[in-house]
Each structure stands twice: as C-alpha cells, then as structure tokens.
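Exercise 3.2. Students should predict the tertiary structure of the chain below and write it as structure tokens, then compare their answer with the key that follows.

Predict this chain's 3D structure.
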Amino acid sequence: MLLCVSASHKTASFDLLERLSIHTTPIAPLIASHDECVQGAVVIATCNRFEAYVDMDEPVTAAGAVALEAAMTAIENATGVAADELTSSSRVISGDAVAEHLFAVAAGLESVVVGEGEIAGQVRRALTEARSDGTTSPELERLFQRASEAQRDVKNATALGRAGRSLVRLALDLATSRITDWSRQRVLLVGTGSYAAATLAALRDRGVTDVTVHSPSGRGEKFAHKHAIAWADRDAYPSAARMSDLIITCTTAEHHVLDAAILGGGATGAAGCPVGREGGRRLVIDLGLPRNVDPDVAGVPHTDLLDLETIRLHAPLEELQATDAARALVQDAARRFAVVGERRTLAPAVVALRSHATALLESEIERARAKGDDGRTEQALRHLMGRLLHTPTMRAHELAEQGRADAYLDALDALFGLQVDAASLSMDSPAQDDRTDLAG
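Answer key:
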C-alpha cells in the first residue's frame, strides 16, 4: 500500500516548513530502513511543501500505522521536528488517494501559485534522488513516472500552465504597487541558482537594467559574466546592499544572508533617506527557504520586507475553468493508476486459473494421444479451453475496475479450490508496464 505524509503551505506555517527543509541526513533511507516491511520511500522537499511517500508490503497487519511510524520517526531524527508537532500540521493520505494527490502536486494544482511549473522538476528530482539512495520500489517508480505523465497531459491540454505564474513573477507583481519606474531601480540579486536566473529574466522583462549579483557561495563572478551584469564579492556586498533600491534573495543557504547590520542598521543621511540611495523606500524580497533574510530587516528605516508568507497570502484566485479541467485530468489519471494496480493484483489469480486449466488440458490431450488421436481432438480441446478461459479473464478486468477483486478470488476458491494470495504475490513480482494484458 502507498502512504503519504504531507506538510505544505496549506497545512503548515513557513516556520515549520523551513525547519523541515534544514537537514543534512537524507530522510528516505531512514524511512526505508525502519522496518523490513517498508518497500521504499521517496521524499519531496520544496520551499512550499515537505512530503514523504512510503510503499508498504500490503499483507502486513496495520501496514498504514507502520508506514506512518517509519515516516514520522525518520523526519524527527533528521530534522528535529517532533512527531506531535508535525502531526498537527500535516495530512496523512493513503491508498488510491495518494496517486491523485501526487498527480495534483506535480501538475501545480497544490502550489502557492496554481499552475507554477517549478514543482514538476522537483518531483522528478525527488525520484532521481531516491534512485541514487536505493530507496525506490516498483510501485513508487510507477507512481512518480505516472505523475510526470499526468503533469505533461495537464500542461498540454489545459491553460493552467499559462494561467499560473512562478513565485518570482508573483513577487514582482506585488512589488509593482511600490515601484513606479522599474527602469530606475538599482537591484541586488543574492543567489545564482535557477531561481536567480528566473528572477533576472523577470526583472529584465520589466525594464530593469541595473542589476548586481552576490553569491554567498562564491559563484557570483561566473553568474555575472554569463548574464552580463555586475557582481559584488564578500567585501563589497554590504555596500551594494545599502545602495540598492530592491534586494532579492533566493539562495539555499541555511543561514541568513541579509540582516539589519548589513544594511547599516538603517543609517540615514541629511535628507532622512538611507545612505547612498536617492530617496524613497527600499524593498527586500525573500524567496529563500530556509529564509534568507533576518526578520530584523523589517525594522530598518525606509525598508519593506516581502517574504514567502506574504506572497502566499496575496496569491491570485485560481482561473476556475483551467483548474477544473486540470483536476478532471488528474482524477482520470489517478483512476487509471488504481485500475492498473488492481489488475496487477489479480494477475496472479488469472495465472493460477490458467495453470490449473492447462494442467487439466494437457492431461486430456495425453489420454487422447494414447488412444491414437490424429491431432484433431487436441486441436478441438485447445480451442475449447481458449473459449472457456476468455470470459473469466475478461471478468478479472471488469471486477478489478469495479474494486471487486476479492469476489474473483472467492470464486476461484469456491469453484476450483484455488487459494491465491494476490497481494503478496504481486508484491514479489517485478513491476510491469501499465499496458499488461491479463488475457495474454
């Protein structure tokens, strides 16, 4: 069975999400090693969510409780967030609902800004990391691969991706109420990763030309040369910060990269404005998680702080038509994922029925040969058996889709004395492609 422990911007504060993101010990291996019944684990950690996906051996008594214990214990050991605290700020999703949830997450339906595209890459990277750690399972592989497929279907078939905007662009949209002329802004960009590149592109779209970059990790010069902008090293950084009208931080540093002390504690000149600036207010946008900016910056005179918490509160309303269409696609993909899972569960039962029938068939064919049959009896018997097995095989498909796999297993037991533990058998078998045909 599948289980997901999900803490997101919808259930948890950014303070808690920040604490969950600060860990150096990989969590998926801790989950996978908790109990031999845990088949695998994949962890997604982004600035807006922290989720642990666990695959459990279905026949285990109280499998859901064991999976939840494995996830909570691993998270607490790696991050220091107590299980009780996480429980009150998270959701536990199990069974078929896990697929629909992950598919919706990958499609951007659960993001701060509905339709944002960054999450799809983060979902793919989570699976890649789990593969590297050796913690995936056939069912988790199937789940995450289908999630990527569902995301592409939503992107191609709906306007959700076009309607949704990234956090970077939403933050700049909110800044527009404070900035009347973007071309006059002196901007300091702190960070050199993918968010920094997206931020620079969004700034240039608004007409910004004066941009300086600083990298706490020392990659600022390389980024600056690549994008034809100025850069500030460690020594020049405080001065560049004080001279800037707009500061945007987007690093993965686990400590504050900007605080009131760097800004000079709000030192002012004769006109009452921050030293080195022509006037007006300075805006600091913190896109980092963990937070890049110390909250004391909000107390610096003439400085406003815009962080992820504020951005989330101002996220625009969803475009209903695009969202509804996307959710319909996600639900259909999740239904197909569940149906295939049921079919794979019944596959051992169909194999058992065919094996039983084949044994009887071969016995009768041998008896016919012993009596001098010229092959016509054998041909007729094989044709008859194929006809007889067709309906039970198709019924396996139908009952699986209706969620009535148990009825099929009960019938095999009652009619033929075949007792098939389909769940345990399917766990032992390797992953199959979703297009596997039970009639084959």
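Discussion points: The chain has a mean pLDDT of 84. The chain has 17 helices and ten strands.
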